[in-house]
Specification:
78% helix, mainly alpha, 463 residues, Hydantoin permease, single chain, 19 helices
Length: 463
């Protein structure tokens, strides 16, 4: 069965799709998380492990998702229905598409809240209101935004409306056009921020903190963290890459695009890490990670002079931009589902999808205010959504894709996925990586996320 033509059209060019793919990959998580993991687990040595994990696990699965999406040419549910029928497999495998859509929607629901905070902080930084903040003052500023439901709701709503408008314009006139403008702008801002921070702050301290090699820090836990982060930062297991792949022409050089996208994504993370850590360490502060780093430590570190205010403004708008490009890529497959299944127009489908995700995002928004004490087994709503999507749903979906392609689909159908790029040596290499290291890596990541590996190690140490 050959690859069908796309009834919706195609990306305008391979470089255009590269920008879309990079836009889907880069985000707040990779800009902050990768440098933090490098600082914890051996610096550039961890980076080597991370890149090896991408080559053995992330890259083959990324190619598989793009090729599956290109073969389907449908929304994820209908596409998997065709694929299951062609493979003569059981209908239970249809759950891969449903789980991917659920994961994308849930991740976007809390991305939107964080992006809204970034925009709010960008305007605060532009007004110069971060001058000489104490730790208590920085905490008070963050709580003033996060614990104010009306204010957070406004930023959350504004972001989702912007994402909805972009997706409503179509995958070429909306998603592609936004990525072609925003991603190069984000890279340029990251370069300028890095140059400013290293010249005016403490670039050497940043290098020593998260890039310099420290072999004693590289542990088995660091290896697993590298595998997990590499999987998550590529947007795998959440239907995003399959959705984008449905608009790929058969002639697209997906191997080169995939490698280029991974390298650009990694370079962006290193630039962002150098910029952020140069400023934070130059101020004599402990960086930390995640929300506390971005919304409490950084405002204290930048200071209140003009250059610092400009840097902070650029940083928070950079976070807003990269979250926007990731968000449009997440909303696209969810909107496509409503378009194909309900026969709705793109505008109406994108609006309904965005409204549904906006509503789910209220749970995250309220987790920092009126629902912060509402906990189940020690976690609030936001923490549960983050845990389920990043640590469970996405790895499970990625593992199911590996198993389906390697063990369920007939070999002739698998070869068809490659289209014009099919070469015997390349097919064998890709299939072998998907069959062994990719599946094993995802199993390890899933067991680690479930706490089973830590439990086994504790049993071993007791014995």
């Amino acid at each position: 069965m050959n690859i069908r033509e796309s009834s919706y059209g195609y990306w305008s060019s391979s470089p255009a799709f590269l920008w879309v793919a990079v836009g889907a990959m880069i985000g707040v998580g990779n800009a902050v998380r990768l440098p933090y993991l490098m600082s914890e687990y051996g610096g550039v040595l961890f980076l080597g492990v991370y890149l090896l994990g991408l080559a053995l696990v992330g890259l083959p699965l990324l190619l598989a998702e793009w090729m599956l999406g290109r073969w389907m040419r449908d929304d994820l549910i209908a596409g998997y229905a065709r694929l299951v029928e062609a493979a003569k497999a059981r209908r239970v495998w249809l759950g891969i598409g449903g789980l991917a859509l659920l994961t994308a929607g849930l991740i976007l629901s809390y991305y939107s809240v964080i992006a809204g905070w970034s925009l709010a902080y960008g305007f605060r930084a532009a007004s110069g209101s971060f001058g000489q903040l104490t730790q208590e003052g920085a905490r008070a500023v963050f709580l003033g935004v996060a614990q104010d439901p009306e204010r957070s709701l406004s930023w959350h709503t504004l972001f989702m409306v912007a994402v909805c408008v972009i997706v409503s314009h179509g995958f070429r006139e909306g998603v592609e056009r936004a990525a072609r403008r925003m991603v190069p702008a984000a890279l340029l801002i990251a370069v300028l921020m890095c140059l400013y921070a290293m010249r005016n702050r403490d670039g050497l301290a940043a290098y020593e903190y998260f890039i310099a090699p420290h072999p004693e820090k590289l542990t088995w836990r660091g290896v697993i963290e590298g595998l997990h982060h590499g999987f998550f930062t590529l947007g795998l297991g959440m239907g995003v890459m399959m959705g984008l792949g449905s608009y790929l022409p058969v002639s697209a050089p997906i191997r080169r695009i995939a490698v280029a996208a991974i390298l650009v994504d990694t370079a962006f993370s290193l630039l962002a890490g150098l910029a952020v850590y140069s400023v934070v360490l130059g101020a004599g502060l402990e960086p930390g990670t995640g929300i506390s780093l971005m919304f409490e430590t950084l405002p204290r570190a930048v200071g209140g002079d003009f250059g610092a205010s400009l840097f902070a403004t650029a940083l928070y708008f950079l976070l807003f931009i990269v979250t926007m490009t990731s968000a449009t890529a997440m909303l696209e497959p969810v909107s496509r589902y409503f378009m194909d299944r309900q026969r709705w127009t793109r505008v109406f489908a994108a609006t309904c999808a965005a409204l549904l995700i906006w509503f789910v995002g209220l749970g995250t928004l309220l987790s920092f205010s009126v629902m912060q004490d509402l906990r189940l087994w020690g976690r609030n709503f936001f923490e549960w959504v983050q845990l389920l999507t990043a640590s469970w749903f996405a790895p499970i979906d990625g593992l199911l894709i590996c198993v389906f392609v390697v063990s369920i689909m007939p070999r002739d159908l698998v070869r068809t996925l490659w289209g014009a790029e099919l070469q015997p040596w390349l097919y064998k290499l890709w299939f072998g990586l998907l069959r062994y290291p990719a599946r094993l890596g995802l199993i390890v990541v899933l067991l680690y996320a479930l706490g089973i590996i830590d439990w086994l190690i504790s049993l071993w140490s007791v014995a």
